[in-house]
Design brief:
single chain, alpha/beta, 11 helices, 8 strands, globular, binds 3-methyl-2-oxobutanoic acid
Length: 267
């Protein structure tokens, strides 16, 4: 029987074996990815885009995150469940940060939360950790800063930006995070940050030197026709598989080939 994964297990993987993280937002997918033996299920605020059809993550609310987190934790996965703190649930201050992180733990039943940003949210990270809620950091291309960045661009390319990111990572570690997501940063920078930290880094578009990797499950499964960023490897082409299946179903309903006798009840 597989034991539940804890934040201590994730910390212990540093330097030993890679951390496997994937997103999920609903019970069906959570059951599947948990059976696939992932270490962490991230209930990302990417839910806003892949589940709710929003243009970016900025419109995601706390209620949405609590709902999706609960959909995942209800199936009692063995993987550690980390829930994203959405835009404006922590930026305005320490009080909001602790109360909203607490909601994801108390109402959503997550085991940890993820916060975007470094030094600028360090007081909030410290306060959440002080409330005994494990925190995962997130640096580099932090999607909640899309307007400040002027779009979804690789971060940390200039020397000054790379230096800031390295300082942010050390500040987050000092504030007590148990891991840090590095999104869309040059491989060499991710490698340097990973070497400088005691806690594991989990990369997305940050190269192979990170202590683990994360992908959005819909990207990994090829469920979108248009969204094909460089850092995503598609392990299936489910958009086409699902479309083919539904096209066949529609044809069989129209031709009355479905339902056949095997799908019917006798009187
Ligand atoms: O919201 C999300 O899915 C994320 C991952 C891309 C790291 O933050």
């Amino acid at each position: 029987m597989r034991k539940p994964v804890t934040v201590l297990d994730i910390l212990a993987k540093k330097g030993k074996e890679p951390v496997v993280m994937v997103t999920s937002y609903d019970a069906t997918m959570a059951r599947i990815v948990d059976e696939a033996d992932v270490d962490i299920i991230l209930v990302g605020d990417s839910a806003g885009m892949v589940m709710a059809g929003l243009e970016n993550t900025l419109g995601v609310s706390m209620d949405m995150m609590v709902y999706h987190t609960l959909c995942v934790t209800r199936v009692k996965p063995k993987a550690l469940v980390v829930a994203d703190m959405p835009f404006l649930s922590y930026q305005a201050g320490v009080h909001d940060a602790v109360v909203n992180a607490g909601r994801l733990i108390q109402e959503g039943c997550a085991q940890a939360v993820k916060v975007e940003g470094g030094m600028r949210v360090i007081d909030q990270v410290r306060a959440i950790v002080k409330a005994d809620i494990p925190v995962m950091g997130h640096l580099g291309l932090t999607p909640q800063s899309v307007h400040a960045f002027g779009g979804y661009k690789v971060q940390g390319r200039s020397e000054a930006a790379a230096q800031r990111l390295k300082e942010d990572a050390l500040a987050l570690e000092d504030a007590g995070v148990f891991s840090i997501v590095l999104e869309c940063v040059p491989t060499s920078l991710a490698e340097e940050v990973t070497r400088s930290l005691v806690v594991p880094t989990i990369g997305i578009g940050a190269g192979p030197a990170c202590d683990g990797q994360v992908l959005v499950i819909q990207d990994l499964l090829g469920m979108s026709k248009e969204f094909k960023p460089k850092f995503v490897k598609r392990y299936a082409e489910l958009f086409d598989s699902i479309k083919d299946a539904v096209t066949t179903y529609a044809r069989e309903v129209r031709s009355r080939a479905f339902p056949s006798e095997e799908h019917c009840f006798k009187g």
